Amino acid sequence: PTEWQQLTNLSTLDLANNFLSGLVLLPNNWIALDTLVLNSNRGLSVEILEQIGILQKLETLELQGGLIISDLPASMKDLTNLRDLNLAECGLLGSVPTSLGSMTSLGKTF
């Protein structure tokens, strides 16, 4: 929804277990977002990941039980505060950026 763009101070977005499908675009003004949880949304399109680099305060990214249909984007290297990355039970058909291996903040990866 276009109204989401007004949520400039949003710090946590948890849409787990909602069976979302289609395309979800993140507004580029959600600079305060530190937790994004989209677990168990198997029909969710990968396009949400293409913009992930804009969320530079993001500490937790949970996509467990979803389907990732291509590569994880190189923009993930911009997530310098990312501590927890959960991709368990995802159908990753592409590659993982090598830059993830050098992310010193990353603590838990599933």
What is the fold's blueprint, element by element?
Elements: E1 12-14, E2 21-22, E3 35-37, E4 43-44, H1 47-50, E5 60-62, E6 84-86, E7 108-109
Parallel strand pairs: 1-3, 2-4, 3-5, 5-6, 6-7
**Percentage beta strand:** 15-25%
SS class: mainly beta
The low-confidence runs, each spanning 5 or more residues with pLDDT under 50, are none
Query: Would you list the SSEs in sequence order as H and E?
Result: EEEEHEEE
Determine Rg (CA atoms, Å).
13 Å
Report the strand count. Answer: 7
Distance between the termini: 30 Å
**Which sequence of strands runs across the widest sheet?**
1-3-5-6-7
Mean pLDDT, to the nearest integer, reads 83
What does the largest sheet look like? 5 strands, parallel
What do you see in this structure?
This protein has one helix spanning 47-50; strands at 12-14, 21-22, 35-37, 43-44, 60-62, 84-86, 108-109. The model has no long low-confidence stretch (mean pLDDT 83). The strands form two sheets. The chain has a five-stranded parallel β-sheet with strand order 1-3-5-6-7, with no helix packed on it. A two-stranded parallel ribbon has the order 2-4. It is mostly beta strands and 110 residues long. The termini are far apart. It is built from one helix and seven strands, in the order E-E-E-E-H-E-E-E. It is globular, with a radius of gyration of 13 Å.
